[in-house]
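User: I'm curious whether this sequence folds into something compact or stays loose and floppy. Could you predict its structure so I can see for myself?
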Amino acid sequence: MRQILKKSQLFSGFDDQSLEEILLSVSKKTVAKGEIIFYERDIATSFYIVGSGKVKVFKLSPEGKEQILMIANPGDSFAEAALFAIGKYPASAQALEDSTVVVFNRDRFVGLVERNPHIALNLIARLATLLHKLNRLVEDLSLTDITTRLAYYLVQLIEEKPTVEEPIKLTLAEKKLVLASQLGTIPETLSRSLAKLTKEKIISVDGSHIEVRNLKRLKQLAGVL
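Assistant: Here's the prediction. I'll summarize afterward.
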């Protein structure tokens, strides 16, 4: 668990002595693919960091439509809202694949935050990042079409690559059903958007592999150029 914490945004830069103190307030849990970690409106008593695997945080509309708010990969934390009020989770969380998560008890962790301002600063930085992403999600769902959202998603994948070489090749980490939910649409509409970008020779698609053929045009569609 120490290695998991070291790779997380919340605890990056902590020495082993500090991590030992933190480890006293956590436990590790294994969750199977498809298993619900918590439901929206469950009492929020813990937050989590993904050790291995992948977890989606999502909301369901009254009609059953799913909107993914975030996908947590190894090192990512989720459900931090549990730290600030003894209330209920505002969304649900489910394992997308067999995963392990580090579980932080709210009451014990709040005590650590009070004694360690470094944790508080890292937590503020993490929450600011999440707020920015959620603001972008709300803006995208309200003001942009699916092709624009897809283009922005692909540009983000490029920017996350440590090095970018020509030709630019990407691998979609999510299955089409999950990616469609993440982008606020359905798989059939996502497929049409991929076909549109392919027809315009902006990308080429081979299963989950994408080659970017016109980065400038892709960025224009994404609204970042």
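Summary: The two ends are 41 Å apart (CA to CA). DSSP finds eight helices and eleven strands in the chain.
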